[in-house]
Amino acid sequence: MILTKYAALAVFINLLFFFNSRAANAAETADPGAWQQSAALYVWLPTLDGELKYQREGDEPFPVDISDMLDMAFMGAYEARKNKWSILGDLIYLDLGDDKDRDNRLYNKVELDLKGWQVGLYGGYNLYQTGRSNLDLLAGLRYLTIETESNLTSNQLPPLTLSQDVDLWDGVIGLRGRTNINENWFIPYQADIGTGDSDLTWQAMAGIAYQASWGDTRLAYRYLEWDQGDDDLLQKLSFSGPQIAVAFYF
Fold first, then answer.
1. Whole-model pTM?
2. pLDDT in tens, 142-160
């Protein structure tokens, strides 16, 4: 049974309480010489923009707009840091669905269903650090997998179902850092760009955060995009919007 977005929000809140208690205990016994780790849960409220182009042998390409679809998403991140080195992971689960009317088309209604994962895994090396700011170089992989199904209906033809999967592996390189405003407030930011199975993928994020002994709370704006060639099923996919995250140190 698929969680609704309201159930997902309830799960998110309960996980916050769980990690908060674990992080508070860990902060009191942290070893300064050990790996410093953090885990973040976040709510992202993005605008979705994209298009699929189904291609069946002998038929003309069949474009399907996938803009403004988002039923549910779960998102989390992990970071481990020691001296100048760091390891980062980013996970997004998507459950998308919508009904689309297509004016002046033979199939005038499309019921869409997309499910997928985005997984990012990066290694980082600190390029610059002072008491006020730090900057890391990032390099790694971004993986996107999506299962798509489109059910088409028409007043003139029998119903038609189109289904196809997308798997994209891309290498990325970028920068990540923070600038401290004072002992509690700071500005986090990250940007990366890459290619591989995608013609181009890139993302950018910046915001403001408040740090406490147990972790920090962040409000940011994030943009994430994939661009594909004309012969691929996924023509373009992008997410953009505000996100709220709570990160716990342990």
1. 0.79
2. 999 988 888 888 777 788 8
**Cα dist. 118→77, 143, 224, 226 in Å?**
12, 6, 11, 11
Kind plus residue range of the DSSP H or E element containing 36: strand 36-44
Could you report the per-residue pLDDT of 50-95, keeping only the tens digit for each?
888 877 665 667 777 777 766 667 889 999 999 999 999 999 998 8
Q: What is the mean pLDDT of residues 121-133?
A: 93
